Amino acid sequence: MDRQSKFTFPSDFTWGTATAAFQVEGAAHEDGRTDSIWDTYCARPGAVVDGSNGDVACDEYHRYPEDIALMKELGVGAYRLSVAWSRIFPTSGGPVNQAGLDHYLRILDMLRDNRIKPVVTLYHWDLPQYLQDAGGWPSRDTALRFGDYASTLASSFGDRVDTWTTLNEPWCTAYLGYGNGAHAPGIKDYDQALAAVHHLNLAHGLACQAIRAQVGQGARMSVTLNLQVTRAATDSPEDLGAKERADLFANEVWLAPMLEGVYPDGVEQAADGETDWRFVRDGDLEIIHQPIDALGLNYYATTYVKARRVGDGTANASVGPEGELADRHANAMPAQEGVEGLAPQGELTGMGWNQEPQGLTDVLVELGRRFPDIELMVTENGSAWDDQVSRDPSVPGGLVVHDPKRVAYLEKHVQAVAKAIEAGAHVTGYFAWSLLDNFEWALGYTKRFGIIRVDYDTQERIWKDSGRRYAQIVKANAI
C-alpha cells in the first residue's frame, strides 16, 4: 500500500478501544473490593513516580455510562475491558462478591444494548493481595485459584462476553513484577520470575478449560501478549545470536507452550543453570496448550540489540520496549548475558519509545505465517505525548486537545495493519490504547495515552483530535 492509495478493511473487521480495571475504575474501597498488589505497591514510598494511586483514577466505576456513550460516538464495535479479581473474590477462600459481579453485568448489558462487543480480560495485572501474601504467581496455587475465578466469571457472564481474554501481557507480570521489581509486587528474584512464567501459562490453560466447561466449546477464547519486536543491530552471527537469546525469553516462553504445547529448546539451560524447573509438572503442557480463537498483540515500539562483548560494560537499555522507563526496565529478563539493548533512535514518544510502524506489519505477518489458523487482533496500540488543552468555542464544552503527533502515530500504525492484511496476515481487529488518559502504572498520572483526555480534578472528558480522527477511520472502515 503506497501513500496515495486507500485501503478498505474487511467488512467484518473489528474496531475497538481498551482500558484496564485498575487504571480507570477507581472506587477502590467500594462494594466489597479489597486490595490488589497495585494498591499495596502504590502505598510504598517512591514506587510510583508521582506518589499517586488508583483510588479514584478515571472514576469509571461510576461513570461507565458516560464512557460507553463516548464509545458510541467514536463508532467502535468493541470494548476491551478487564475485571478486577478482588472485586469478585475479596477474601482468600471466601464467597463470591455478588456486588462485584453485578457491576460488570451492568456494564456488559449496556455495551450489548449499544451494539458494542465486550472483550473481557480476566487478568490485567491486579492480583489480589491475599494471593500475593500466599506466594503470588511463583506459587502454583495462584494458577489454580485463577481457574476458579475464570469459572465463576463464565458462569455469571455466560454469553454476554464476545471474546474472553485470559491474560494481558504476562511478560510484564513475570519479569517486571518478580524479575526487576519495576512493577507490583516489586520483587527482584529471577527464579521467582521464571516460576511465574510457568504458572501464568498454566493459568491461561486452566482458564480456557474452565470457561469452555461453563459456556460451552463455542466460547471464543484469546490471550494478549506483548511480543517484543526485536531487531539485530547488524547481520553478524553474534548480533543475530543476541536477538535469538532475547526472543527466547521475551516471546517463545509464551508462544511455544500456549500454541505449540512445548517449552522452547534451551530455555531451561539458558535461564541461569541453577533454576529449579520442577515447577513444571507432568501434564502441565497439555493443560496450557488449549485451542484459542484469537491471539491478541499489544504493540508500541521495537528494540534493537547487539551482542555485548567482554569489556563493553553493562547494557544501558532494556531488552524490549514494554514498560515505562529505561532505568526501570533494564535487565528485565533473566539470561540476557551477552545481549545489549541499544538506545532508541528517531523521534521518541513521551514514554521514550521509538516509532517504527513497520515492526507492527512484520510481527503480524510473521505470526500469520506461523499460526495460520488463529485470528490476530491488535489489542493495544497507541502513544503518549505531553498534551495541552485548547479553548475552541466551536466544539461541545469549548475545550479540545490538538495532538498531531498522536494522530500521526495512529494513522501510520493503522496503515501498518493494512499492509499486514495485504501481505496475507489474518488480522481481524484493532483496539486503540486507550479510550481515556489513565493511571499509567509506575508512572502514575504523568503520562497520557488516551484518545480522550481526562481532567483528573473534575473528571471531565475532553476530546482529542486523535479521538476524532479514529472515529473517521472507524466510520470509513478504511485508511
TrEMBL record:
Q: Which UniProt keywords apply?
A: Glycosidase, Hydrolase
Q: Respond yes or no to whether keyword tRNA-binding is given for this record.
A: no
Query: Could you name the domain of life of the organism this protein comes from?
Result: Bacteria
Q: Does the keyword Cytoplasm apply?
A: no
Pfam short name (any one): Glyco_hydro_1
Family of this protein: Belongs to the glycosyl hydrolase 1 family.
Put simply, this protein is called Family 1 glycosylhydrolase
| Organism of this sequence | Bifidobacterium favimelis
